[in-house]
Amino acid sequence: MAVFRLDEELWFPDPHLGEPSGLVAVGGDLSADRLLLAYSNGFFPWYSFRDWDEPHWYCPLDRYVIFPNEIHISHSMRQLLRFDKYEVTINKDFLGVIRGCATVQGRNEEEGAWLGPDIINAYTELNRQGFATSVEVWEQERLVGGLYGVCLRRAFFGESMFSLVPNASKLALICLALRMETIGGHFIDCQFETPHFASMGGRHITYEQYMRILDSGNQDHKSI
Fold first, then answer.
1. 3-state DSSP helix/strand/coil percent for the chain, to nearest 5?
2. Which tens digit of pLDDT belongs to each residue from 40-77?
3. Of residues 145, 177, 175, the one with CA closest to residue 161
4. Which of 58, 133, 193, 195 makes a 20 to 30 Å CA pair with 205?
5. What is the pTM of this model?
6. Measuring CA to CA, which residue among 135, 95, 98 is closest to residue 114?
């Protein structure tokens, strides 16, 4: 087991050589090219921005995903979808969503907070280039929840979500899955299992399965 140091070259090591936690490498940068290479190989950056001045790159070999056609929609969520209490949009306010994810309930003040200025700037640039996507939930003119992630090779790599009202992030995730199903999206990468994702239909697959599915999309970029 080892943790590799990245340099200015664009490369990532074999994740099978990394730590059991999924940490494989440190260093490099958060350029769009490096991020796209990372997600194409199952890596993502995750590190405390107050404690470290360089990215830490994770690639767990046990992956947790939601397949769009397996999304679980509870009776209460079906009712919420029918009532049209909230409006759901895509890429209407990416910056509002990523800032909401960073600051809701004081997340940015917590020990180990990872969604800092460098991450916000990097993913905002990916959004500008068409590779990062947000899903917004609105109550009239107020942004009350949403999620964002990277859209690449017909997969969606979820990064974070937030809610200011009950079930807003669930609604965003359901709408994302329904949209992905209509365009032939492969999966939503949840990175790690949580009770929230388990209740929504998530399941474990191996890194090998994950990469086979991802590679079946080749270089095709399908925006949601």
1. 35, 25, 40
2. 999 999 999 999 999 999 999 999 999 999 999 999 99
3. 145
4. 133
5. 0.94
6. 98
